[in-house]
Structure formats: structure tokens, C-alpha cells
Amino acid sequence: MNIFDLTIHELKDKLAAGELTAAEIKAAFSDRIAEVDPQVKSYLTVTDELSEKQLANYDSAKEAALAGIPIAVKDNMSTDGITTTCASKMLENYRPPYNATVVEKLNQAGAVIMGKTNMDEFAMGSSTENSAFFNTHNPWNLNHAPGGSSGGSAAAVAAGECAAALGSDTGGSIRQPASYCGVVGLKPTYGLVSRYGLVAFASSLDQIGPITKDVEDTAILMNVIAGHDEKDSTSVKREKEDYTAYLKEDVSQLKIGIPAEYFELDFDQEVKDSVLAAVEKLKEAGATVETVHMTDAAYALAAYYVIAPAEASSNLARYDGVRYGLRSEETADVTTMFTNTRYQGFGDEVKRRIMIGTYALSSGYYDAYYLKAQKARTLIKDDFDRIFNDFDLIITPTAPNTAIELGSKSDPLEMYYTDIFTVPINIAGVPAMSIPCGFDSNEMPIGLQLIGPHFGEGKIIQAAYTLEKLLALKNKRAEL
Amino acid sequence: MIDKKDVEYAAGLAQLKLTESEKEKYTEQIGQILNYVDKLGELDTEGVVPTAYTVPMKNVLREDKVTESLPREKTLANAPDQKDGQFRTPKIMSD
């Protein structure tokens, strides 16, 4: 296997055994970026200066969890002095004056940050085609989208342009691209990972998480990034867990629910068959599997498309051309400057969501839309709580399809529908992971979603680790 | 149903300039999206308490003490326009 194909734990083993040096690893991944990024286009910025500096610190950080490991970071996480664009013209030249907490944690763990990855503008989208700069291509087939919004992070992992990456997930933005790119992606429980320094999209839904080549790497990265942060008032105070303790091949004690209403939806038969075949394997391995009944996921999608735009319209009010970001040349008076700055700085999808959110929050419509959606949110959350009283995990497909062709979907609602299985999880605030479970007839990866109760990451990791061994797909890489 | 006037009103609230063709496009698209969202009306939410955050917590307080903050120079470094250590905007009051 090539160095760039190796996982975090494999690289760590080779470093420990003296088979590779940190400099060799860094060079292998830098070469890989130079070789394939012109086609894949995962990175908005390759942070050479930063990665060289971090590499130079290797000897003093040797014992740290990610010492010498090349990691990519989605471009909505603040990096001190390094452009953080959110793939928006609004922030094209923005250099944050501080690091996001997760970036600090990567630094402390000795990681080598290779670059900032492409995404849908302000994380609004499901294909990374809403980037204001360029499209990212799916490493399994360059004519296809990598999914989104963390498409650059997922593509970078799948293409061997980093060992692992961080993404953010508001309605599926880690799991859906992980599914489309054949890698592992975890959206942790809301509040488990600090959002300090993550450019806000929808604050009650946003969560940072890992995108990795296998489940073990997810556990390693979660050990680094999880934990309370006083700089994020929504971050949860709880005892630190060692997620690697759940890397056990055992599902005999697990009771898994299969939501009938989700599988009855009209979606890709190959995806459905592949997910159910994987569930069968878990059953053979000793898991108890039963059908459960849940509220139609369509209500969660409807609630999401009120709550997320409403919060976004409020969060994005800060882009006014005063303190940072773009300022329009039209400066006759302050209102002209505001409206022109926002007109020039935001792309189509961002404007659409600001408009929906503003409308849904406006006087006379607040009760009908926002309040109604928040009440629906209670019902959806209660639904998950009810099932998790009896079950350890729920399994669904991650997405209703495999990666779409670039440019094939232009209708917003049609695009939103690709998030049908992932959105309910953010609405309920529970954790969920996408892991590869097969390939369709076009050799595009299929993802399976494991959902757990609040702070049930351990159970998810254990089941996913077992399933990964049963399916034996994890060493399959995209050929570029 | 949403019409062009509603779109213009929302754009005004959001301090967003829109072209005529954008207004028409958004009127149609936002209409379709809100039409989908109307599905929520099928849910009986009588007496249901709304959820804002899924993890129960409120009044997160910290000690009221002065800590280090970002230096002014660094904070102003991204400003499109600045003067005397402050952000400068176009005129806010009309003549």
C-alpha cells in the first residue's frame, strides 16, 4: 500500500516502529496533493507554511495522539492568520485572528494540518457545487459530486490527500459526503465537540466531527476533539471518554432498530439492498434486529428547512462589510453599502436561505413556521428518545442514492431531498455515523448510517467497527 | 402563497439587494419550499413545548472576571476601513 493510503493508526504504528519518519509521511501526502488535487480539487488552501512548522515540532510532540499525522480541515473552521473563506466571496480574504478550539486541539495533539478544504458556501448545500470558487470532484468518478457540504474533506480523505479530516454537519454535511466518497464520517452528539471558531450556520444544529478512512481513526480523532470548552456555551460538561475502548468486535449485546417508515420511502433500490444486506450480517454476528416505527422523516426535513434557514438568516446578519469580509464599492450611505455588500458577497443558495429564514421569522409568520417547526422538533426528538429506551442503535441508509453527477440537480427541493435520512439526526441532536457498506452497479460507494442515543458514540463505534470487519471493504481505495 | 411583495419585504429586512430576475426566481422557489414546509401543519402539536436546543442546559454562566482578549491591532486587521483604531463606515445619518 502507498503511504498516502494508510490510516492514522497505521501511520502511527509505522512511526513507532521506525519504518517511516514524520518527514517522509508529510512528503508523501504533499506529493499526493500535487499529483491529484488538480483533478479532485479538495483544497481551497494548502497550508504549506503551517504544515512545515508543525512538522518541525514533531520531535517535541512525539508522544501526542496525532504526532506527525496529516489532517485536513474544512474551510469554515478558523485558523489563526490563515484564510478561512467558508467557500464564500464574502470571506475570500478573511484571516481569522484566532484558532477554532478544534484547531487548537489538533495542534496540541501534534497534527500536521495540510490545508483547508472546499465546501458548499457557508455549509449550505449537499454537493459542494455551491462553493463560490470551484467544484470538488468525487475520487471514485471525477464526473460526480463528492456530496456536501464537507465535500472537500471527504474527497481529500478518499483521495489520500490527508490521513483524515474534520468536517461540520448541520443536516448531514459530514455523513452524506462520507457516504458518497466511501469513507467514514461521524456527526457527534450536539454539544460534544466545541463549536468555538466554527463559522456559524445554524447554531442549534451545527456540530464538528471526523471524516476518516476507518472506524478506528474516528475513535482516535474523537479522543482529540471531544470535550467541554468554556468558550462555547452550548458545549456539554461531562467526563472524557476513551472512544478507542469501544473498538471491539462484538455486537451480541446490541439491539438494533430498523425504521419501517424510512425504508418504505421511494429511493435507490441498490442502496436499500446493500444496507439491508449489511444489517443481515450484523444479525448473523449476534445482534438483535427488530423493525421499529418512527414519524415520517419528511416532517424532519420540513422542520429543518424552517429552523436552519431561520438561524442562518440571523447568524449571517453579521456580514455587513464593517468589521471584516467584503465591502462593496457602493458606499454612498451605510444602507447602500450593506445591501450591495450582501448582494455581491453571497451566492444563490445562501441568499435563498437568508430569504426563507427572514420570511419565516417575520412578524405574522413566526408562529406558523418557526414555532411550529420547533414543536415538530420536540416530537421528532421524543420519537428517538422513545426508541432508544428499548434499542441501542437505529440503522438507515445515509443517503437515498449514491453520488450525483456534477451539475445534474438544479432544483433546490430535489437537492434538499438527498438529506432526508441525515436531517432528523441533527433535529434530535443525537450522534450518527456513516460507514461504507457496498458499491452500486456503477462502482460508486454506498453508505450506511448508524444512529445512537445522546452520547452513544461508543455504541456506534463498536457496531461500526464490527460491521467494518464483517464487510471487509475498508482497504478498497478510489483509483486516481 | 408568497408573492413578489413578500420577497421584497423579506429582502429589505435582510438588507439584501436583489435583481428583478432574482426576485421572480425566489418568489417561485421559496413558494415551493414553503409549500413543502406546510406539511408540518399535518402534525398535531397542541400542547407541545417547542425545542430550541436538544441538550438540556440553560443560563450558562462564567465567573465575572477580566481575561485576556484579542489585541486591537489584530481585531482591526480584517477591517475594510479603519481610522484611529476604530472601524469606519460610510455615513449613517442622512444630511
From TrEMBL, chain A:
Catalytic residues of the enzyme: 74, 149, 173
Catalytic reaction equation(s): L-glutamyl-tRNA(Gln) + L-glutamine + ATP + H2O = L-glutaminyl-tRNA(Gln) + L-glutamate + ADP + phosphate + H(+)
GO (cellular component) term, any one: glutamyl-tRNA(Gln) amidotransferase complex
Keyword Transferase annotated: yes
Enzyme Commission code(s) on record: 6.3.5.7
Residue ranges annotated for the Amidase domain, each copy included: 27-459
GO terms for MF: ATP binding; glutaminyl-tRNA synthase (glutamine-hydrolyzing) activity; transferase activity
Gene3D superfamilies in UniProt: Amidase signature (AS) domain (3.90.1300.10)
SUPFAM superfamilies: Amidase signature (AS) enzymes (SSF75304)
Keywords from the named record: ATP-binding, Ligase, Nucleotide-binding, Protein biosynthesis, Transferase
InterPro entries named in the record: Amidase, Amidase_CS, Amidase_dom, AS_sf, GatA
Top enzyme class: ligase
Top-level taxonomic group: Bacteria
Gene Ontology annotations of biological process type: translation
Subunit structure: Heterotrimer of A, B and C subunits.
Family per similarity comment: Belongs to the amidase family. GatA subfamily.
Chain's role: Allows the formation of correctly charged Gln-tRNA(Gln) through the transamidation of misacylated Glu-tRNA(Gln) in organisms which lack glutaminyl-tRNA synthetase. The reaction takes place in the presence of glutamine and ATP through an activated gamma-phospho-Glu-tRNA(Gln).
The protein's name in its UniProt record: Glutamyl-tRNA(Gln) amidotransferase subunit A
Source organism: Halanaerobium salsuginis
Automatic annotation (TrEMBL), chain B:
Entry annotated with the keyword Ligase: yes
Biased composition (Basic and acidic residues): 64-86
Family: Belongs to the GatC family.
Record-linked InterPro entries: Asp/Glu-ADT_sf_sub_c, GatC
GO biological process per UniProt: glutaminyl-tRNAGln biosynthesis via transamidation; regulation of translational fidelity; translation
Protein name per Swiss-Prot or TrEMBL: Aspartyl/glutamyl-tRNA(Asn/Gln) amidotransferase subunit C
Start and end residues of each stretch annotated as Disordered: 64-95
Superkingdom: Bacteria
HAMAP family assigned to the protein according to its UniProt record, in alphabetical order: GatC (MF_00122)
The EC number(s) this enzyme carries: 6.3.5.-
Root EC class: ligase
Reaction catalyzed: L-aspartyl-tRNA(Asn) + L-glutamine + ATP + H2O = L-asparaginyl-tRNA(Asn) + L-glutamate + ADP + phosphate + 2 H(+); L-glutamyl-tRNA(Gln) + L-glutamine + ATP + H2O = L-glutaminyl-tRNA(Gln) + L-glutamate + ADP + phosphate + H(+)
GO molecular function: asparaginyl-tRNA synthase (glutamine-hydrolyzing) activity; ATP binding; glutaminyl-tRNA synthase (glutamine-hydrolyzing) activity; transferase activity
Family annotation (SUPFAM superfamilies): Glu-tRNAGln amidotransferase C subunit (SSF141000)
Subunit note: Heterotrimer of A, B and C subunits.
Listed PANTHER family: GLUTAMYL-TRNA(GLN) AMIDOTRANSFERASE SUBUNIT C, MITOCHONDRIAL
Keywords on record: ATP-binding, Ligase, Nucleotide-binding, Protein biosynthesis, Transferase
Described function: Allows the formation of correctly charged Asn-tRNA(Asn) or Gln-tRNA(Gln) through the transamidation of misacylated Asp-tRNA(Asn) or Glu-tRNA(Gln) in organisms which lack either or both of asparaginyl-tRNA or glutaminyl-tRNA synthetases. The reaction takes place in the presence of glutamine and ATP through an activated phospho-Asp-tRNA(Asn) or phospho-Glu-tRNA(Gln).
